[in-house]
Write a structure and sequence with these properties.
The protein is mainly alpha-helical and 456 residues long. It is built from 15 helices and no strands. The chain has one domain. Helix content is 82%, strand content 0%.
Length: 456
């Protein structure tokens, strides 16, 4: 089989992506079950969960984005067979990520004491504060986990993180159920219990992932230079320069959805609860797409390290084709089940009716959401992060948020109007990022024609 054929690319991307997809979806299944557990406690607690998660998500994606600065550097070093630098990158990334986690946890703690600025109902704010502070503290073990996870993924070892994530997720579901409802001899702590379970499971994930990377025979050749003496400003800065724009890319998108959740709260707890249900379901398909995207980033980074630019183009396009097939299928499933799925979360006719309408809009932005996340990751694999960051800022904050506000509050569309605005932003981002990747990849091919054969 031709190593540069699309069939071989599909196989390589699939083998790399499926553990990432399973672990991402497994994590979202935990979020879904948590939301269902909390939804049965009533609309106010579900609204508090929505507000807390929306605020936490804005901070969390900053940390996740910073951690993503490591993966393309490891993938490129791996492609260039520069094993020594892999360990050096890891020790510097770990230092950067722990520092980032501490800063984020502190920022969330402060924010939790000033929730009144968001103009939400008083009962919702009272329920949100302790929950948000606890899940905020979980950013520190999460950043440790991400350091070792992104390192392993950069080396194309993805199944181990999948197993660890699934084990921790299963533990989290049981612990969350026990602490929310007072089962298994545990105290009934409701929303606070969900936060505690979240913190404990993330600590478990960090310890298991660190143990694997530091003790695996497969990884050992790449961590010989993992030592404090290799901390240096150059590698630290290289990771930060890649990670910070990635952090802002995620911040602009997730921040837009978080602002949408806050705007929903201005309509009342029922609208905010419906938003939480719909976004919880839509985020599940997005996380699966992000698994395909992460694999695409690694394969593009490997190809760049090998200086094989036709392979880079095909690796990127394979990610696009795969995500279009997947997200097209999920769009049809959402349209077919939009009235059924919300009923599993809460027994409130008004909330389920609003959520079912939002899921119809979610079905339409499945393709755009999948295409834009592939674009971001393919370009990140090429260490192209500045222009994509500008694209996400314009798409979400210059276009989507103002449009969402206008459609939601000045046209009578309310919740639907807010989500229509998000749909427009996602679509613009998807188109521009795709154009950027195609243009950049073709430029590499034609300017390095003496190194590789022309693209077929």
């Amino acid at each position: 089989m031709n190593s540069n054929s699309y069939s071989s690319h599909f196989k390589s991307t699939f083998l790399l992506a499926y553990p990432l997809v399973i672990s991402q979806v497994g994590h979202m299944v935990v979020n879904i079950t948590d939301t269902i557990f909390i939804g049965h406690l009533g609309a106010v607690k579900l609204a508090a969960c929505s507000l807390g998660i929306s605020i936490f998500a804005v901070f969390m994606v900053l940390g996740i984005g910073i951690s993503y600065g490591l993966t393309p550097l490891i993938a490129q070093a791996f492609g260039a067979k520069d094993h020594t630098h892999c360990g050096k990158f890891l020790i510097n990334a770990l230092a950067l990520n722990i520092f980032t986690g501490i800063l984020i946890a502190a920022g969330i703690y402060v924010m939790a004491n000033h929730l009144e600025i968001f103009g939400q109902e008083k009962m919702v704010i009272e329920q949100t504060k302790p929950f948000l502070q606890i899940i905020g503290a979980s950013m520190i073990p999460l950043m440790v986990f991400l350091s070792f996870k992104q390192f392993a993924e950069g080396l194309s070892f993805t199944r181990q993180a999948m197993v660890i994530t699934l084990l921790a997720d299963g533990f989290n579901v049981l612990l969350t159920y026990g602490l929310i409802n007072g089962k298994f001899g545990l105290p009934r702590m409701e929303l606070v219990g969900a936060g505690i379970a979240n913190f404990i499971s993330r600590t478990l994930m960090a310890l298991l992932m660190m143990y694997y990377v530091l003790n695996s025979k497969n990884v050992k050749p790449y961590i010989k230079s993992f030592a404090l003496k290799y901390l240096n400003f150059g590698d630290f800065t290289s990771i930060f320069k890649l990670g910070l724009p990635s952090a802002f890319q995620y911040l602009f998108e997730v921040g837009a959805f978080s602002v949408a959740a806050i705007m929903m709260g201005w309509f009342g707890a029922s609208y905010q609860s419906a938003h939480q249900i719909a976004i919880n379901i839509a985020a599940t398909t997005y996380m699966a797409a992000s698994g395909i995207a992460a694999a695409t980033s690694v394969r593009v980074g490997n190809s760049l390290g090998e200086k094989n630019y036709p392979k880079l183009m095909r690796a990127g396009m394979t990610g696009y084709y795969m995500v279009l097939i997947f997200m097209g299928t999920t769009a049809l499933l959402l349209l077919a089940s939009n009235t059924i799925l919300p009923s599993y979360y809460i027994n409130d006719p008004m909330v389920t009716q609003i959520a079912s309408q939002l899921l119809i809009i979610a079905a339409f932005f499945q393709l755009s959401d999948g295409v834009q996340v592939i674009g971001l990751n393919a370009l990140r694999g090429m260490t192209d992060v500045k222009i994509p960051t500008l694209i996400t800022f314009i798409s979400y904050w210059v276009i989507a948020i103002p449009l969402s506000y206008y459609l939601g509050f000045y046209t009578g569309l309310k919740a639907n109007g807010i989500w229509f605005g998000l749909l427009v932003g996602l679509t613009i981002s998807a188109v521009l990022l795709y154009y950027r990747f195609r243009k950049s990849a073709k430029r590499l091919i034609f300017t390095n024609a003496h190194l590789t054969e022309a693209i077929v």
